[in-house]
Amino acid sequence: MSSQAFDLPVPARGENPDGYSTTTLLLEGDLLLTSWVDGIAAVRVGILRLTDGSWRILKGVRGMLRDALALPGGRALLLTDYGLSEIDLAILTVTRKLTAKIGRHNTSMQHVSDDVVAVGNDAKATDILVSLAAWEPVGRRRRVSGSPRLVDAAAARAGVIRVLEERDGITVGATSPYPGEHGQRMLVLDTAGSVVCDEAMPWGVASVVFWGGGIIASPLRLAEHVPLRAIPSVHGCPVDGAHDLAALQKHAAAPTSAP
């Protein structure tokens, strides 16, 4: 297997402090969300629709993207370093923002019920409970941490230190415990534990998502000439035309901003 660079039309990187790491995630099955530093520590959040390659830069979102949740009615919640934003997925516009009383530098969120989400920082013991109907904090709870992904023996022998993602017996891992800018590699292992892809990641690898039979890997800090990397097929079959990453890159070359 071989990967290909997948450039997004982001501007040149300005000053990018160490804490400004990129989070790239998949929402609703075909929306790839990411963020980057634009200029002197200004942040932008972009959405790439993988089914047609359309690219939008969201206005009104402050802080690096950390998590996202789909909501009923064609809406989604975005969590950044500075707060919550609700967006309308049909027109990709921010409809509500919340920053008061939920703290800064939160890292993840979870559905608690249809109306309540828990927002928290992995380093803290409690989460803030936010009512979506009232659009305000309504309490706290002890943080419920997910189980860490364990590195099995076959992956460890191959050199995996950190498991990035697993699906259908395919394991994607990194060769260092934390995203790094030098010397890190991304390994893809098949169901038998054999390495089917060993990819040098000169800018580190922060996360990966599975899509269309392949994977899309995010660098530590997305920027101009610091691209995503795509492996078109990890399941032994070619990706069909609707999932042609090269075609998507061509469509995404002309950026547009959400109104």
Could you give a quick summary of the protein structure above?
With 259 residues, the protein is mainly β. Helix content is 5%, strand content 44%.
Report what the structure shows.
The radius of gyration is 18 Å and the shape is globular. With 259 residues, the protein is mainly β. A hairpin with a 3-residue loop joins strand 3 (31-38) and strand 4 (42-49). A five-stranded mixed beta sheet has the order 2-3-4-5-21, with no helix packed on it. The protein has a four-stranded antiparallel beta sheet with strand order 1-20-19-18, covered by helices on one side. The protein has helices spanning 153-158, 245-252, and strands spanning 4-6, 25-27, 31-38, 42-49, 55-58, 65-71, 75-80, 83-88, 93-98, 108-111, 116-120, 126-131, 136-142, 162-167, 170-174, 184-189, 195-201, 207-211, 214-218, 228-231, 256-257. It contains two helices and 21 strands.
Q: What is the topological layout?
A:
Elements: E1 4-6, E2 25-27, E3 31-38, E4 42-49, E5 55-58, E6 65-71, E7 75-80, E8 83-88, E9 93-98, E10 108-111, E11 116-120, E12 126-131, E13 136-142, H1 153-158, E14 162-167, E15 170-174, E16 184-189, E17 195-201, E18 207-211, E19 214-218, E20 228-231, H2 245-252, E21 256-257
Parallel strand pairs: 5-21
Antiparallel strand pairs: 1-20, 2-3, 3-4, 4-5, 6-7, 7-8, 8-9, 10-11, 11-12, 12-13, 14-15, 15-16, 16-17, 18-19, 19-20
